[in-house]
Amino acid sequence: MAVIIVDFDGTCLTHDFPHLGKEIGAVPVLKKLVENGHQLILFTMRSDNQEEQILENGKKIFGGHFLTQAVDWFIENKIPLYGIQRNPTQDTWTSSPKAYGNLIIDDAALGAPLKFDLGIHSRPFIDWFKVENMLVEMGYI
């Protein structure tokens, strides 16, 4: 059994923050991981902000329940999460904010198989067909 850290935007769905993106094939692969006894941790930049904020540098932070939207996506797709933003056991042995896991699936990871399909989105996103093949090769599914 492995603990697998999963990003959200660009990984589970296309990049469309602050909205939910388009489906890109993550659901069946994530379900296979769970069915094979692995635990998933959602590790995303999404957060729940009560109000819109303007930072000193003029950048805008949107107000909304963006992390909740991501968690709800997992619930709606019947994909159980072991943790959200962190491994629930790591507080017993570290104070690091980095989530602990055995594997990370993230569109920003060097070497992550990406798909470029302008018919779906202008930004690349995880190629779940290739990820699934890699997970089979590695013995995760």
Strands of the widest sheet, in order across it, are 7-2-1-8
| Main sheet specs | 4 strands, parallel
Output the structural class: alpha/beta
The chain-level mean pLDDT equals: 94
**Helix proportion:** 10-25%
Radius of gyration: 16 Å
Q: In the CATH scheme, what's the topology name?
A: Rossmann fold
CATH architecture: 3-Layer(aba) Sandwich
Count of strand segments: 10
Helix count, per DSSP? 3
User: Strand portion, in percent?
Assistant: 15-25%
User: Spans with pLDDT under 50 lasting ≥5 residues?
Assistant: none
Overall tally of domains: 1
Euclidean distance between termini CA atoms: 11 Å
Q: What is the CATH class?
A: Alpha Beta
* CATH evolutionary superfamily: HAD superfamily/HAD-like
Commentary on this structure:
This protein is of the alpha/beta class and 141 residues long. It has one domain: Rossmann fold, CATH 3.40.50. Helix content is 22%, strand content 18%. It contains three helices and ten strands. The strands form four sheets. A four-stranded parallel sheet has the order 7-2-1-8, covered by helices on one side. A two-stranded antiparallel sheet has the order 3-6. The chain has a two-stranded antiparallel ribbon with strand order 4-5. The protein is globular. The N and C termini lie close together (11 Å). The model has no long low-confidence stretch (mean pLDDT 94).
